[in-house]
User: Fold this.
Amino acid sequence: MDATTLAAYDKAVPRYTSYPTAAQFDARVGPGEHAAWLGELGGSFATVYFHVPFCARLCWYCACNTMAMNRTEPLDAYSRAMALELDRVAGLAPGLIVGAIQWGGGTPSQLGARRLVEVAGHLATRFDRRSGAEVSMEIDPRHCPDELVDAMTRVGVTRASLGVQDFDPGVQHAINRLQSAETTADVLDRLRRAGIRRINVDLVYGLPRQTLSTLSRTLDAALALAPDRFAVFGYAHVPWMKPRQRLIEQAELPGAALRAEMAALVSERVSGAGYRRIGLDHFARPDDSLAVAEACGRLRRTFQGYVADESPWVVGIGASAISSLPAGYAQNSAAADRYGAALEAGTLATARGVALSAADRLRGEIINRLMCLQAIDLAEVCRRHRVEPVSFLAGIDALPRLVDDGLVDREGDLLRITDRGRPLVRSVCAAFDNHFTPGPERHARAI
Assistant:
């Protein structure tokens, strides 16, 4: 990526895991609105996302909603609150069918094997589940005893995502996460022997002390694990949002030019190993469901990343969990104690959200397609949303520049993200975001 492009586009833009993004959420959406929106699901399919905001120890790079927690009482209280929330949802959305289950965090296994089994069992008593529904769980390989692997099989986990980030010892010290390739390989082997054969590996580029050489060695070790998918994220340094990131030395972070080289190295190495590039930051084997979904035009992007399941809606369970519903987005309180207190009091724990307008639905579909498929027929989408394409396109002020800069090809109403523009697809999407307010302390940088 040349210096001119870096200077023009290395700016803070949303990650577009939703539209409108979480930056537009506010307290006008509360328990009442959330309850009414759940009632609209009826007999629909939905993914259930469990958020567990606890880890054994905090990694300094992490921007997730999580805290260090090893005490029994808060973990017991949290699992009870999740069961109560499942009860509330079951009462508000009778006939809801679970199309997929995702456990994220934090570290879901920090609940412990017994509590995981109890919460999953409670879900099974309150909802029907689609046959063959995928059950995925994020795993910290540093804390994965045989007892946990057994619990994962008992709750029906079919896919495990292993957090790695980087295997270089210097980088690991800089982010407070020490994890050997041998430990990771051992966990992966035990999962496969237990029948959990669909494996994802998560990596991060742009970390402190990371170089092209250290990243290349990490890629060697990660490719040797032969997972089904890779998610390779650019590190988002947002210390104004996550104070733990202040423990990372800013001077040790790669600059924009080096980050761009790192992203290119990842794409070259992983694609060269036979994985298909998916969207912005995922890679999958050609026969993996994510690659199949992209080939069929069914790929979607949610707060959990790129997903292949066909469930159009997400019901979020847990502190800070976000529900994606027909009428809008609703997010629970981020504090585990406030989350639990609301549910004990007999209400939902909704703290904020946003209702979708007709314009949001149109722009959201455009952004989702660009993020997932890198191409769109704007005329076709506009007409389905009963919007005149010419007048709509006339209002996208940044589009001519994106074309001139070589990030987008345009043939009439057909837009395609170029290979040059693919690493900057978030910047392209920002052109269609009528809520976006540029500012250095609202989003991660594009590169």
In short: The domain at 1-18+358-447 is CATH 1.10.10.920 (Arc Repressor Mutant, subunit A). Residues 72-92 form the longest helix (21 residues).
